[in-house]
Amino acid sequence: MKIQPECIPCLMKRVLYEIEISTKDKELGSKALVSAMKTFTENYDPSICSAVLATKVHRAVYEALGNIDPYKELKERSNKVALSLLPKIEGKVRNARDPLKMAMLCSIIGNILDFGIEGGSGSPEKLAEVFDSYLSQGLGCDDYEGAKALISTAKNICLITDNCGEIVFDKVLCRELKRFNPKARLTLVVRGSPVLSDATLEDAEKLNFREVVDNILTTGTFAVGVDFVNIPKNLHSTLDESDIIICKGMANYEALSETDYKPVLYLLRTKCTAIANSMDLPLGINAVKLYE
Questions:
Q1: What are residue 217's phi and psi, to 5 degrees?
Q2: Which of residues 236 and 130 earns the better pLDDT score?
Q3: Which of 136, 150, 225, 278 has its Cα between 20 and 30 A from that of 29?
């Protein structure tokens, strides 16, 4: 997705948020803000991918702050809250007419764990308060049957994760994918280094993902979404060999929509107008959107 005008205040709002959670030193905060704005003005181009520009800006802020993981405490709290909801989710999936579809819906609701942006969460604990309400909304975009048909015959499935907290629900989804198609080789992809509130290899290992997937790879670099210019060879070959790529969250859409990979199944909450408009979807819905 190319950067949209409404992406600009959103990006700067998130920059201010990560400065706020990182330091009370006003001088340091000002230095980080100036670095963000300088990087933005030097790299802004209407034809640039939104995720690429965001990566450059956030890298500048992290370096100015001297903080490689500003969201660390929020990520830990997000996983803790999501784990507290796991018994409820397990029950919903177990009792569902279609466990795989229910696992997808629960996984999408976890996507609200995004901080410093409109449509995200004020705190990790908010997820517990709104879970039932969001679940009752069901799917506002439902391409499930088409996706199910592709998953049923897939030999290789790749699932690219997004936020912490959300990744707890992704483990349930991975388990149901393997139950639905035991013959498929399922690869999980996490971020190569801490960026925003996204899950890394450390999170996947702590949650014992190897119980439910065949392989775990990383995006290899500091990047919002996936940096396809510097993509690791093993991830490149995995994506090429995948019969379907499942992508969680908006950042992955921003990056992957700039490529020719298909079929791609996006599981996300449309939290901003730029993403909703790009996907031709309403704002604020749970979406299972398939591109073939």
A1: -125, 165
A2: 236
A3: 225
